[in-house]
Amino acid sequence: MAPTVRSNPLRDPRDRRLPRLPDASALVVFGATGDLARKKLIPAVYDLFNRGLLPPGFVLLGFARRDWSDGDFADFARESAEKGARTPFREEVWDRLAGSVRFLQGSFDDDAAFDRLASTLEDLERSHGIGGNAAFYLSIQPSAFPVVLKQMQRTGLSSAANSGGWRRVVIEKPFGHDLASARDLNALVDDVFTPSGVYRIDHYLGKETVQNLFALRFANNLYEPIWNSQFVDSVQITMAEDVGIGTRAGFYDETGAARDVLQNHLLQLLALTAMEEPVSFGPETIRTEKLKVLRAVSLPADLARFAVRGQYEQGWLAGERVPGYLDEKDIPPDSRTETFAAVRLGIETRRWAGVPFYLRTGKRLPRRVTEIAIVFKKAPHLPFDQTDTAELGNNQLVIRVQPDEGVTLKFGSKVPGSAMEVRDVAMDFLFGEAFTEASPEAYERLILDVLLGDATLFPNNAEVEESWRIIDPLEEYWASTTPHRYRAGSWGPAAADEMLAADGRRWRRP
Ligand code: BG6
């Protein structure tokens, strides 16, 4: 008999601190045996379940090509949760979740498999009381999106009216390959699902430190008066990784660093850093403000100098010799795909006119670090001898997205002693020290939001298309160039340093 699903007595929409429980529902994961599912999605589901944030009527339904039984998938899911979960793995918790794990074998062009999926969801309605509610997570190659979406349309899986509950779809980035393909995909997705049921994942928006940008900027009085071109010299946004491309050669070689990270994660960080205060914290108000920033973004006229891409060569990282990109397994030896991208952008608004935003991302850089650094102008007048302030740099506010999540303020201080000497010092806030509660993983928060129907942290169509408008000219320009080379374990090609030097600036060494 179907378990009775009770409404959550804690749910009070006026108090956003209280935990919210989603409706009874199924989470269907296409590509359930892939890397993303194993490393992120399944551990996040376990963590949510372990925290008591999933509803009593919940089912995790994996869909993939492998000829697996429910039991095989449950074993795989258990191992993923044991290895990847953030919260402690507990046998009794897993046993309860395992009762709600199902698997369906099929390929995306297999009509019969999708028919089975539709009838399985109906069965789950009876056995698990999921109320006709389902979220479909497309954790698959972007090239397979159209066929899967069409199958869901054909079988009526995407129709809320058919099911009597809600139907949502979650799409992993990159959303399209350029503006034209993103438009086609947007049109298709909106034809299959109601637009309010489409969730485009950019997992950076689910990170605690990224959300803290809202608090930092809009809950404090301290920063807002200086958050503009009058005080800010420039902004540097860095997303560096020490890892290479791992086992994703096929995907990565088609995609490259600009489409993989710049088009989405970095432009979203830029939008959150530069946006005006939203009138409230609803999805539409936040998206409107982000969109205004993206629309105002301008590219440099001289792309040869201010848009740099690179490809790593063999080198050393953490005492280990690592191969160059062209020697990675399954990468064509003449590939011109970039593993590093840096660009200078402008934002043509009164607040930001003349302030360069330098964005960079790369693989095989010295360490994994993501940060947003607001570099302030120098004081207009220094009543000291020049030698007193020789060691004084620009004031900086650095938001450390990861690791060592927190915020650092860099400013000048007198060096103790009888002489007047001013040197840079740092004031540090660390999430890990200030709070006892650990932050949820980005995927934990975002999966929960999908089940709750809260789209605040998901970019919409217009943002995605606007981001391609920015990236397309870069890609067109780069298509006729060969990437600069950089040694694995270095901070990218010399041309990236020259780009800042041309403006009389330097990259931070985070
Ligand atoms: C993904 C990119 O979106 O983000 C990967 O496709 C990258 O190439 C990953 O490694 C990094 O995510 P995080 O959360 O580890 O910074």
Structure commentary:
The chain is an alpha/beta fold. It has helices spanning 35-50, 70-84, 91-98, 111-128, 145-154, 160-163, 179-192, 208-218, 249-274, 283-296, 303-306, 431-434, 442-452, 461-479, 494-501; strands spanning 25-30, 58-64, 101-105, 134-138, 167-172, 198-201, 232-240, 297-298, 307-313, 315-317, 320-322, 340-347, 357-362, 369-376, 396-402, 406-414, 422-430, 484-487. A hairpin with a 2-residue loop joins strand 10 and strand 11. The termini are far apart. The structure holds 6-O-phosphono-beta-D-glucopyranose. Residues 241, 260-261, 370 line the site of 6-O-phosphono-beta-D-glucopyranose.
Number of helices: 15
| Secondary structure tally: strands | 18
Find the structural class using helix and strand composition.
alpha/beta
Rounded to the nearest angstrom, the radius of gyration is 24 Å
Q: Which hetero compounds are present in the coordinates?
A: 6-O-phosphono-beta-D-glucopyranose
Strand content: 15-25%
How many strands, which pairing sense, and closed or not: the largest β-sheet? 10 strands, mixed
Q: Mean pLDDT, nearest integer? A: 93
CATH arch. level architecture of the largest domain = 2-Layer Sandwich
Low-confidence stretches: none
CATH topology of the largest domain, by name, is Dihydrodipicolinate Reductase, domain 2
Number of domains: 2
Beginning-to-end CA distance, first to last residue: 57 Å
